[in-house]
Amino acid sequence: MRTMLADAPRTALTMAYWGFVLYLFLPLTLMMAMSFKNAAFIAFPIGDWTFDWYLKVMQDKPFLEACAYSVLVAGLTTLAATVIGVWIAMLIATTEGRWGAVLFALACLPAVVPGMISAISLRIFISTIDMPTGTSAIVLGHTVHAVPFVVVMALTRLRSMPANLVDAARDLGADSVVAFFRVTLPYLGPAIGGGMIFCILLSIDDFVRTFFLGGYRPTLPMLIFAKVQGGMSPEINAMATLVLLVTGAVGLYAEYYTRRSRSR
């Protein structure tokens, strides 16, 4: 009897966990199943199954252009966020006491500000400096949102770095710049790699900031949103399924890469 009572909390947590998994994956499974429906509308039963919607999506020029544009924006965002994030992490690591905590809080602030508030403030900012909406504005907004994640990953790695590595490089004649590129940067490699992958995922998935800062060229989320306005169809489900599979694969690789790097 005592054993059953002791195992009750664990059983309840296990059931809650699997309930959450079901709640998370059931809608995704239904979405993916509807992408194979041999009809122009979404409804049960599915009836005949087909791959025609995927063939249509892969030949859809606006979809391919939106994918290429999203990749371009994500690449520029990742480059900018990585450089800025590593620099801020180095600054925080070398700042002791209260000011270090203040810098860390300010660096992480964009990650906790609601997306709508961040998008509105960025739109006001680009209007103030006369920056036109479009690629530059989108990259700016995505970079502001992605920098905190690079900072956290790089700073965590920096704090586990033995201080004597840089001291040994300086004793051998290396200045601060050489020591950074020869010692610190290679040590930060796993954290930078993981942070870059998450920057790509954040940028591709960012809809709110893109909506407020975008120009005439739609990114992938904007294209899907525009198509949804005309009504749901299996074609939209096929687009969403392809995006889900690609981003899921990238996310899983990022987790695997991070774990492998930490174990090393």
From TrEMBL:
Transmembrane segment boundaries: 12-33, 67-93, 99-125, 137-158, 178-204, 236-254
Cited Gene3D superfamilies: MetI-like
One BP term from GO: transmembrane transport
Domain of life (superkingdom): Bacteria
Membrane topology, record value: Multi-pass membrane protein
Record's GO cellular component terms: plasma membrane
SUPFAM superfamilies recorded: MetI-like
Pfam families membership: BPD_transp_1 (PF00528)
Signal peptide bounds: none
Main location: membrane
Compartment(s) where it occurs, according to its Swiss-Prot or TrEMBL record: Cell membrane
Domain ABC transmembrane type-1, residue spans: 67-254
Keywords: Cell membrane, Membrane, Transmembrane, Transmembrane helix, Transport
InterPro entries linked to this entry: Bact_Polyamine_Transport, MetI-like, MetI-like_sf
Family of this protein: Belongs to the binding-protein-dependent transport system permease family. CysTW subfamily.
The name this protein goes by in its record: Putative spermidine/putrescine ABC transporter,permease component
Species the sequence originates in: Mesorhizobium prunaredense
Organism placement in taxonomy: Bacteria, Pseudomonadati, Pseudomonadota, Alphaproteobacteria, Hyphomicrobiales
